[in-house]
From TrEMBL:
EC assignment: 2.3.1.21
Name of the protein this chain belongs to: carnitine O-palmitoyltransferase
Lineage, broadest ranks: Eukaryota, Metazoa, Chordata, Craniata, Vertebrata
Matches recorded under PANTHER family: CARNITINE O-ACYLTRANSFERASE (PTHR22589), CARNITINE O-PALMITOYLTRANSFERASE (PTHR22589:SF105)
Pfam families for the chain: Carn_acyltransf (PF00755), CPT_N (PF16484)
Reactions accelerated catalytically: (R)-carnitine + hexadecanoyl-CoA = O-hexadecanoyl-(R)-carnitine + CoA
Protein's cellular compartments: Mitochondrion outer membrane
Residue ranges that the Swiss-Prot or TrEMBL entry lists as coiled coil: none
Domain Carnitine O-palmitoyltransferase N-terminal per the UniProt entry, residue ranges: 1-47
Residue ranges of every copy of the Choline/carnitine acyltransferase domain listed in the record: 173-753
Gene Ontology BP annotations: carnitine metabolic process; fatty acid beta-oxidation; long-chain fatty acid transport
Gene source species: Dicentrarchus labrax (European seabass)
InterPro entries: Carn_acyl_trans (IPR000542), CAT-like_dom_sf (IPR023213), Cho/carn_acyl_trans (IPR039551), Cho/carn_acyl_trans_2 (IPR042231), CPT_N (IPR032476)
Entry's family note: Belongs to the carnitine/choline acetyltransferase family.
Length: 785
């Protein structure tokens, strides 16, 4: 109970002589400094609210407007055209103020109103600029006059924004015309259906549009007028929070450490720097010091709403639906090690502990010999199994007493940390196999040594390797990837380590011991833990993960051929799947809609008429020139589909929302029911590198990120995640299920590599032919000259 005594600021004893009051000045000082930190954060939040509330103007511009109005009044000119006089006549305090005082107050009121009007006008102009998306569809060398004017009117000249400065100026996600969505849908499924099947689907779509569709569309347009985003709240609730299946593998995803480098082999030291880097990032988010994310290569800002629930957030289970809970602040993290849970305070006297101090505390946890209490070691399995049993257990056994206090500590923690007993990474005699095991460890671990409900959990392995597991409902992968990029770069390049692998800095030896969380786990909960663990273990054992770096070439060589790297990879995936399964399937590629306020994702249906035509031509041995032409058409088509998805003209989110409206109205739609039940046998996603400036790959080429991955969406399908690193590497993460005899992650990975190589061989041959033709034409040109 030493921790409890340290937390007491005063003690008193009742004696015959009276009350003997004993104050602990050290504890009172800690309370005072903690309160100062809390008030500083409140003041900072209030200041930021004012700054972003008047953006794109600045608070100081109000003074400029006031001085300008006063100067013109001094020159006996009335810029208000009589409004200042009218304001003066209606002042409630005109009796108690002198004439000069009344004039001054009237000028201040008018100047403030004028200033606010100018802010609204600037914000409206900014919103117009951000609402223009046609620039995405312009071809090189064929830029329209409207786009030229838009470029000239660049809003990058506005003052430096805070993280959330653009939020109120971002446009709302538009609701597409129902006819356009249905037309695009039918076009997307055409290569997957036979003629009779396509005819039947066309009939269903036409019947839907002529009858129920327009009725549902009216309700959706009404929601779009009222809500900030007509998709995001329903997407979060019905796709994520209402799902009753396990989060592990099905929803959560993972992020990996550097591929070739482990900054330190000391587990506690790596934990110290990683935790410090994460908390520095949180400080930047709280102070809004992070630069707003932008469309790569442009100044166009993206919505930053997903950053709000990054830290101090937990998904709590419910019988019908889960709830995302977010707390304003948290001064501790919770650490899991060898079946025990510890609360680790990361602030002391209002200051963030140094990396060396956090390492010291982590080493104390590693050295703690105490065994776990009965039922404690595998308690995390409740978060890995089905949601309903966990919700029932939580309500019955974790809603009061010591169990509630310990669970509150986990749920209110800034994030969750696991000190893993295993070693992971690309090492030893089987580096490829070790990468696969590394991925599986981050995706599900032992099914009980992660807390899958937390917004994200950090895993630090015994050999110093690290990684994370992230819950999906609160944010999408690019937001977590941005956090993880900053963490890796800050850990390796800014905080650094001593020569013997320890964190830098000094240690305050008076730091209190990490606080062991106490549980009282009854036999009923232990039985449910075993049941949830069995469900989770079966799911984990069924996942086949394969991670491999593709080093033959990267985006540098692809871009020299004037082809989008993403389009190239997606067409390669279509070729690989065709070779693997002998046909095509409905393909999901995640695209973002963060050009709009509170935007999340949209689906790019990568299996198109053009891509399937190219694959068939290549596999049927068509001649080179027609095959190349088909590839170019497929590439252009994919780029166009991606742009349409980004600009709100996608297919699937619109149909999903129409389906939700139909459920609210209690009406059935055979068309929507069939569309939303179609399996995504190939689910793909690119993890973007957003902060390349943090990584000096020229001087430190080994500090290459492995990216991250996710589990398969369909039982008989593949999940493919890829990250384009630098100019010469693409890392792939492939997942499938052992229980399906038709899928094999290693086989599909080999097909991906071969497909990318075969396409490059085709394109390179075309390039050589073009160069030789030019060389042969040069002498003729000289003769003509």
């Amino acid at each position: 109970m030493a921790e409890a005594h340290q937390a007491v600021a005063f003690q008193f004893t009742i004696t015959p002589e009276g009350i003997d009051l004993q104050l602990s000045y050290q504890a009172l000082n800690q309370i005072y400094l903690s309160g100062v930190r809390s008030w500083k954060k409140r003041v900072s939040r209030m200041r930021n609210r004012v700054i972003k509330g008047v953006y794109p103007a600045s608070p100081s511009s109000w003074l400029f407007v006031v001085i300008a109005i006063l100067a013109t009044m001094y020159m006996r000119s009335d810029p208000s055209m009589g409004l200042i006089t009218k304001i003066q006549q209606h002042l409630p305090l005109h009796v108690s103020l002198s004439s000069q005082g009344q004039t001054m107050v009237s000028v201040l009121v008018f100047s403030t109103l004028l200033w606010l009007s100018l802010i609204l006008a600037l914000r409206f102009c900014l919103k117009l600029l951000l609402s223009y998306h046609q620039w995405m569809f312009e071809q090189h060398g064929r830029v329209s006059n409207v786009t030229k004017v838009w470029v000239v009117s660049r809003f990058s000249t506005f003052r430096k924004p805070l993280l959330y400065s653009y939020q109120t100026s971002l446009p709302h996600l538009p609701v597409p015309a129902i006819r356009d969505t249905l037309s695009r849908y039918l076009q997307s499924v055409r290569p997957l259906l036979t003629d009779p099947e396509f005819k039947r689907m066309t009939k269903l779509a036409n019947h839907f549009e002529a009858n129920l569709g327009n009725r549902l569309q009216r309700y959706l347009r009404l929601k779009a007028l009222w809500a900030t985003n007509y998709v995001s709240d329903w997407w979060e609730e019905y796709i994520y929070l209402r799902s009753r299946c396990p989060l592990m593998v099905n929803s959560n995803y993972y992020g990996m450490d550097f591929l070739y480098v482990t900054p330190t082999p000391v587990q506690a030291a790596r934990a110290g720097n990683t935790i410090t880097a994460l908390l520095l990032y949180r400080r930047k988010v709280n102070r809004e010091e992070l630069k707003p994310s932008r469309v790569p290569g442009t100044v166009i800002p993206l919505c930053a709403a997903q950053c709000e629930r990054m830290f101090n957030t937990t998904r709590t289970p419910g019988v019908e639906t889960d709830v995302l809970q977010h707390w304003q602040d948290s001064e501790f993290v919770v650490v899991y090690h060898k079946g025990r849970y510890f609360r680790l305070w990361v602030y002391r006297a209002g200051r963030l502990l140094s990396p060396r101090e956090i390492e010291h505390q982590m080493q104390r946890i590693l050295d703690d010999p105490s065994p776990p209490k009965p039922g404690e070691d595998k308690l995390g399995a409740l978060t890995a199994g089905d949601r309903i049993p966990w919700a029932q257990m939580r309500k019955q056994y974790f809603s009061s007493g010591i169990n509630k206090r310990s669970l509150d500590a986990i749920e209110r923690a800034a994030f969750f940390v696991t000190l893993d007993e295993e070693e992971q990474g690309m090492r030893g005699e089987d580096p490829a196999g070790n990468l696969d095991r590394y991925a599986k460890s981050l995706l599900h671990g032992k099914c009980y040594d992660r807390w899958f409900d937390k917004s994200f959990s950090i895993v630090i392995y015994k050999n110093g390797k690290s990684g994370l597991n992230a819950e999906h409902s609160w944010a999408d992968a690019p937001t977590v990837a941005h956090l993880w990029e900053y963490t890796l770069a800050t850990d390796a390049f800014q905080l650094g380590y001593t020569e013997d692998g320890h964190c830098k800095g000094e240690v305050d030896r008076s730091l209190p011991q990490p606080q062991r969380l106490v549980w009282d786990i009854p036999s009923e909960v232990q039985a449910q833990v075993c049941s949830s663990l069995a469900v989770a273990q079966a799911l984990a054992d069924d996942v086949d993960c394969h991670v491999f770096p593709f080093r033959d070439f990267g985006k540098g060589r692809i871009k020299k051929l004037r082809i989008s790297p993403d389009a190239y990879i997606q067409i390669g995936l279509q070729l690989a799947y065709y070779r693997d399964r002998g046909g095509f399937c409905l393909t999901y590629e995640a695209s973002m809609t963060r050009l709009f306020r509170e935007g999340r994702t949209e689906t790019v249906r990568s299996c198109s008429n053009e891509s399937t035509a190219f694959v068939k031509a290549l596999e049927d041995g068509e001649t080179k020139i027609p095959t190349l032409r088909l590839f170019r058409l497929a590439s252009e088509r994919h780029q166009n589909l991606y742009r349409m998805a980004m600009t709100g003209a996608g297919i699937d989110r619109h149909l999903f929302c129409l389906y939700v409206v139909s459920k609210y109205l209690g009406v059935e739609s055979p068309f929507l029911k069939e569309v939303l039940s179609e399996p995504w046998r190939l689910s793909t996603s690119q993890t973007p590198v957003q902060q390349m400036e943090l990584f000096d790959l020229k001087n430190h080429p080994d500090f290459i990120s492995l990216g991250g991955g996710f589990g398969p969406v369909a039982d008989d399908g593949y999940g493919v995640s890829y990250i384009i690193v630098g100019e010469d590497m693409i890392n792939f993460h492939v997942s499938s299920k052992y229980s399906c005899s038709d899928t094999d992650s290693h086989r599909f990975g080999a097909q991906i590599s071969k497909a990318l190589q075969d396409i490059m061989t085709l394109l390179s041959a075309d390039t050589k032919t073009s160069l030789s033709s030019k060389g042969a034409a040069q002498p003729q040109a000289k003769k003509l000259l």
